[in-house]
Amino acid sequence: MKNSAVLAPPAAAPAPPAEMSARTLLLLEGPIVPTLLRLAWPNVLVMVAQASTGLIETFWVSRLGTNALAGMALVFPGVMMMAMLSAGAVGGGISSAVARALGSGRRADADALVLHALLINCALGLLTSALFLVFGRQIYAAMGGRGGSLDAAMAYSNVVFAGNIVLWLMNALASVIRGSGEMLFPSTVVCVGVALLIPLSPLFIFGLGPVPAMGIAGGGAAVVATTALMAVILAWYILSGNSVVRLRIARLEPAFFADILRVGGVGTLSTLQTTLTVALTTGIVGAAAGPDAVAGYGTGSRLEYLLIPLVFGLGAPLVAMVGVNIGAGQKERALRIAMTGAALAFVACEAIGLAAALWPSAWLRLFGDDPMMIATGSAYLRFVGPAYGFFGLGLALYFASQGAGRLMWPLLGGFARLVIAVGGGWLALALTGSLPLVFVMLGAALAAYGAIVGIAVRSGVWFRKDRLALRAASVSS
C-alpha cells in the first residue's frame, strides 16, 4: 500500500521561513538516504566508540575474577538504563521538541527549550542517583547477586551512581545540539572521552605510582571523570554561540516542560520496559544456574545492549529529520524517512546477530574462559542473535516515533516483549528446567517487538488522529 493511501491528502507545504538555517532546510528538502547517512555516520562512529566504554571496563574488570565480572553484569542494566533514559528517552524528547520548534520556524522557543531541558535532566539525574545509592544492594540481590559478586556490584555501583547527574547533564546538552541537526560535534566530544578512558580505566582499577588501586570501583571513577569532561565541552559549544540553538535565560513555561516530557515520559516507560526485561531475565538465569551463568548471560546480552548505541547512531538523525518534517507538515516524507532508517537498522543489527550466533566464543572469550560462562553465553547468542535485526528495526522506529511525538506503539511493542521474554521464559524454566528454552523465548520476544512496531508505523498510526479530525471536519461541513 502506498503512503498516499495511508495518509490523509496533505495540504501544500508552506514555504519555509526565511530565518531557517541551512541545516534545517537540509532536513526538510535533502534526499532522504544521503542526508540520513550523512547525519548518521558521525553518530554511528561515536556510538561504537561510546559502546567501547563498556567493553574497555569489562575487559579490565574481567582480570579481577569471575565475581567482579558477575558484579558488573548485575550493575550493567542499571547503568545502561541511565544512558538510555538520559540520551534516548528524555534526550529524544529534548531533540524532538527542539527539532519541531525549528521546523515550524519558532526559533525563540527552541532557545528557551535549552534551559528547560537542563532543569529536567538535572532533577531526574538526582532522583535516579538516590534510588540506586539507597536501594542498590536490595536491587542487585533480587537479581541473583550474592557473596563476592554482590560486594563487587556495590563497589562499582556506588561510584557510578554518585556521579550519575553528570551523565544526565551531558546528554541533555548533546540532545539539544542533535535536535538542531548538528551531529558531528557531539560525536567528536564523545570520541575524545572514550579515548581518555582507555588509559584512565586500567590506571584507576590497578593503580600506578601515586595513583592507588581502586579495583572495580576504579572503572566507575574513570567513566564519571570522562563524562564530566564531555559535559564541560558541550556546554562551552552552546554558550559560545556555535550551536544553532542558544542557552538563554527565559521564563519557565509549563508548555515547554510538557513538550519535552510528553515524548520523553512515554520514552522513559519504554526504556524501563527494556531494562526490566533484562533485569528479570538475569534473575531467572541466576536462580536457575548461579553467578557463573549470570556472568555468561550478562556478557552475551551485553552485545544486545551494544546494539542500542549503534542504532542510536541512526536514531538521533531520525528524531531530528522526522521531527522537523512533522513540524513543517511534510507527513509523507517523515514516514519515508522512518521506514528507510528502520531498514538500515535491521540490516546492520541482523548481520551482527548472525555473526554472534555462528561464532559466539569469539565474543565471549574476550572477557574470560570460565566454562559455565562460555556455555551460557554461547547458548544465549545462538538462540537470540538471529532476532537482533527485529530489535534494531523496532528501536529505529522508536526513535522515529519520538520525532513524530507518537510513542504508543513502541510502548505496546515493548510490553509484548516484556511479557513474552519474562513470562514465557519463567514458564519454560518452570516446566522444563531448560535454560536454552528460556533463550528461545527471548529471541521470540525480540521478533515480536520489531514486527509489532514495524507494522503499526508502516500502516500510518502516527497520523490516525489527523485522519479522524479530517473526516469529522468533512462531515460537519
TrEMBL record:
Pfam families: MatE. The chain crosses the membrane at residues 73-94, 114-135, 155-177, 183-206, 213-239, 306-326, 338-359, 379-400, 407-429, 435-457. This is Putative MATE family efflux protein. It is found in: Cell inner membrane. It is a multi-pass membrane protein. One of its GO terms (cellular component) is plasma membrane. GO terms for molecular function: antiporter activity; xenobiotic transmembrane transporter activity. It comes from the Bacteria. Keywords: Cell membrane, Membrane, Transmembrane, Transmembrane helix, Transport. It comes from Roseiarcus fermentans.
